[in-house]
Design a protein that fits this description.
This protein is an alpha/beta fold. It has helices spanning 37-41, 48-69, 89-106, 115-121, 166-176, 183-191, 216-229, 235-264, 279-291, 309-321; strands at residues 2-7, 12-19, 27-35, 79-85, 110-114, 134-139, 144-151, 154-160, 268-272, 295-297. The structure holds 5'-O-[(R)-(carboxyoxy)(hydroxy)phosphoryl]adenosine and zinc ion.
């Protein structure tokens, strides 16, 4: 079974082709991605209308590229999958519309996929895929969640952010420091030149006793610190602040992930979503999990942020298990807000 996946929920257009047997981990045949970062940079964040228009321009050329790289003819596609939500409504509609039009034209079924399920399953495309059950730390631009994952489609939410997501904390702090968009990678790069112990920043909900997160207070603390430093803050102090901010976010993510492993007795952690690319987070998680004889799995670096491969993969894994059926009515809808546990 060959599944073509289309991702267009935010600022990346992704298309990919995976091949799946009746069981076993699906294989990635080809994937192509266009990031809109350069386009949105001038505005300091994603402009939804521009995102939708750019998805329209990119999606078909990317699909052609993927099929050509995989030497796959249009008629060899068995299922067309797309991101149904959550995300920007207009952006989602582009991927859904194209996927359903393609399915209708080819007479092939289509399947809408949950974006976060894509992230969560993306480590299965890595060279050392995880086994169920595991704890998933989902850290994207809009979500920070800890889940117990027993199998595909069996997700129990253990805790989540009550305000900003970890990615948002990176992005908003970076913006205040004048580092541009997307802030996560920019802040992480600057943090390499700073000392994380310079500024004492809050670790919100660190001792809350539950698995929820809160990052809004951290953002305020960064703003206060910047005001204290004044308008001509030197590059070195900025680097110290970047390092201190990153460390505060990482400390909370690591502590809560370890608490989730302990509470469930599970020995396997899967980290997914854009913030999962953060080197300091990986370093600290690896060290702490090794001490506890726990394994940590990450997606390939290139598949940490949004991509079509994770969407094709999630669709294929659902179809393999018979927990989803691809349909031929092509009456698509999208879900800009969508709870994964209810998907
Ligand atoms: O999963 P993703 O690509 O998109 C969403 O579904 O939201 O995640 C994007 C988020 C952004 O907040 C971005 O700043 C953050 O991931 N990010 C990082 C790094 N790379 C991406 N945050 C910290 N360190 C990084 N290296
Ligand atoms: Zn994402």
């Amino acid at each position: 079974m060959k599944v073509l996946g289309v991702e267009s929920s935010c600022d990346e257009t992704g298309v990919a082709l995976v091949e799946a047997d009746a069981s076993g981990v699906p294989r990635l045949l080809a994937h192509a991605l266009h990031s809109q970062i350069d386009m949105h940079q001038a505005y300091g964040g994603v402009v939804p209308e521009l995102a939708s228009r750019d998805h329209i321009r990119r999606v078909l050329p990317l699909a052609r590229q993927v099929l050509s790289e995989a030497s796959c003819g249009l008629q060899e596609i068995d299922v067309v999958a797309f991101t149904r939500g959550p995300g920007l409504a207009g952006a989602l509609l582009v991927g859904a519309g194209v996927a359903c039009a393609l399915g209708a034209a080819l007479g092939k079924p289509v399947l809408g996929v949950h974006h976060l399920e894509g992230h969560l399953l993306s480590p299965f495309l890595a060279s050392d895929p995880p086994e169920f059950p595991f704890i998933a730390l989902l850290v994207s631009g809009g979500h920070t969640q800890l889940m117990r994952v027993d199998d595909v489609g069996q997700y129990e939410l253990l805790g989540e952010t009550i305000d900003d997501a970890a990615g948002e904390a990176f992005d908003k702090s970076a913006k205040m420091m004048g580092l541009g968009y997307p802030g996560g990678p920019a802040l992480a790069r600057l943090a390499e030149f700073g000392d994380a112990t310079t500024f004492e920043l809050p670790r919100p909900l660190l001792h809350s006793g539950n698995l929820d997160f809160s990052f809004a207070g951290l953002k305020t603390a960064v703003r206060t610190q910047l005001l204290k430093l004044g308008s001509n803050v030197c590059e070195q102090d900025k680097a110290h602040l970047a390092a201190s901010t990153q460390q505060a976010i990482v400390d909370v993510l690591v502590k809560k992930s370890l608490a989730a492993l302990k509470a469930t007795g599970l020995k396997r952690l899967v980290v997914a979503g854009g913030v999962g690319a953060n080197a300091r987070l990986r370093e600290k998680l690896n060290a702490e999990c090794a001490k506890r004889q726990c394994r940590v799995h990450y997606p390939e670096l290139a598949l940490c942020t949004d991509n079509g491969a994770m969407i094709a993969l999630a669709a294929a894994m659902r179809l393999q298990r018979g927990i989803a059926t691809a349909g031929v009515d092509y009456a698509f809808d999208v879900r800009p807000r969508w709870d994964l546990a209810a998907a």
